[in-house]
Structures are given as C-alpha cells and as structure tokens.
Specification:
With 264 residues, the chain is α+β, with helices and mostly antiparallel strands. It has 4 helices and 11 strands. β10 and β11 form a beta hairpin.
Length: 264
C-alpha cells in the first residue's frame, strides 16, 4: 500500500517488499539519550530510512558494474521528499540533452501499539507500469535489473530464454531483494542500537540525519505537487531542521513550506 491509500504495484516476483519494525521508544527515548538529551524530530525518521535505502541501492549498482567489468556510467541514486528513492539518468546527444528521475523505491511508516512499522518497496527485478492518470497516477518506475544483468545461465534458445533460464533469473533477483532487505534492516537497527564506541558521537543528531539525506538530493530536479488542484511545478530550496521543506513555484517564484504534501 502506498501513501494516502494509493496502491503500490509490484508486477512480478523478484522485487523487495518488506516491513521493518522498531520500538517507538528506540526513537523517542533511546535516540534522545544518544543525542546529548536532545529530542530528534520524528519527522526525520522517513529521511533516515530513505538515506539507508538510497545508499544500499547505489551500492548494489556499483557492485553490479564491478562484476560486469564493463566500462559504463553508473546512474546516480537520488531521493524525493519525503519518502521516495529515484534513479537519475542523463543522455547527451549532438544537439540535445535529456534527464530523467524514475522511481525505484518508496516507503510508508505507520504506528501500531508501541511500534513503528516501516514498509519498504524496492523494484529490483521488475518495474511496474504506472498510470499517468486516475487514482494511482504517478512517476514512471524503474528497477535495478534495467541497469544490472543477471548472470548468464546459457539457457537461451533461438534468441529467447527458455523456462529454466527465466526461473534462474527470477531466483537471482529474489536473492538480491533478500540481501537488500536484510542489509537495510541490519543497518537501521545497528544505527539505533550501536555497540559501545562503534559510532561517531554526533551520528544520531538531527543535523547528521539531514546531511546524509541531503547528500542524495538533486537540487535541480523539478517537482510537481501531487495533490493540489493546479499541480504546481516547484523546485526544492531548503530543508528545515525538523524535516519540512521549502519549495519555490517555477511559474510565480513564490515559496511555501511543506509539511505533509507529496510530489510526483
């Protein structure tokens, strides 16, 4: 399930769909004690999770390029406030330049009793087709397999894959999905509950969370307000200490501060 009751589409097996549970006290109390008694705004939780997801997708792309041995440009992983991860690619021709930001991952955080439940979806083997209109309209999707090749099983017949080859490829993406889910969950819990002297003293501060998340921003990306009548085009100008963002409308130059809005 996506935000505001929208559907999260996963076209086939081979994508990562998982939930991480953390006790609310881990953020509300334990994190405060690691931050010199200062409360870390809960609104920074999706940014922290988004940074971890972006980091591990970027690492998977780099590992894939290294294994292939091919000299090719690795696409950049970026984030979109408040809870999406995108793949940024560029194409330059003799007289043209194009840039795209396609969605590869998203998350939804809910509370249940004394827990925060962090639902994460990553397109690993397959990219669903996203409608351009209707209740579930949204940004075009991409997936890890569009930039990484599964190991060749040699199962092609007449230029097409046989059933065994397809099953082996699907199993490969399932294993990549499992690794991503395990690594992200491990890193989040290790960050919340570090071993003594295993983390920098300021790593649990709000400033550190924001700096990590902002390192994945493409400040030049044009965004569209998803749920406003006019769907204004905006650009991101700044991120406030509590995780709110300031945007500027492209047409009017007016700025506004967003709390719970979403972008296309």
């Amino acid at each position: 399930r996506g935000t505001t009751q929208r559907n999260w589409k996963s076209s086939q097996r081979g994508n990562a769909l998982f939930t991480i549970g953390i006790p609310q006290s881990s953020w509300m109390k334990d994190l405060k004690s690691k931050n010199d008694g200062r409360m870390v705004p809960l609104t920074l939780l999706p940014l922290k999770v988004g940074s971890l997801v972006a980091f591990h997708i970027q690492r998977a792309l780099e590992e894939c390029a290294e294994k292939s041995g091919e000299a090719r440009q690795i696409p950049r992983v970026t984030v979109k406030w408040p809870n999406d991860v995108l793949i940024h690619t560029t194409q330059t021709g003799q007289s043209s330049f194009s840039s795209s930001h396609e969605k590869i991952a998203g998350m939804l955080i809910e509370s249940a009793q004394d827990w925060f439940l962090i639902g994460i979806g990553i397109n690993v083997g397959y990219a669903p087709i996203i409608p351009l209109e209707g209740a579930d309209y949204g940004r075009r999707a991409t997936c890890l397999s569009q930039y990484c090749n599964a190991p060749d099983s040699g199962g092609e017949v007449g230029g097409t894959k046989d059933r065994t080859s397809e099953e082996e490829e699907e199993e490969y993406w399932i294993n990549i999905s499992k690794k991503l889910a395990t690594d992200i969950a491990h890193d989040l819990h290790s960050w919340l509950h570090p071993m003594p002297s295993s983390r920098p003293l300021n790593e649990h501060s709000g400033e550190s969370i924001l700096n990590q998340w902002k390192s994945f921003i493409d400040w030049d990306m044009e965004l569209i307000l998803r749920d406003t009548p006019k769907r204004e085009r905006v650009t991101l100008k700044s991120v406030l200490d509590d995780g709110r963002v300031v945007v500027q409308e492209v047409e009017t130059g007016l700025t506004r501060t967003l709390v719970s809005d979403y972008f296309l």
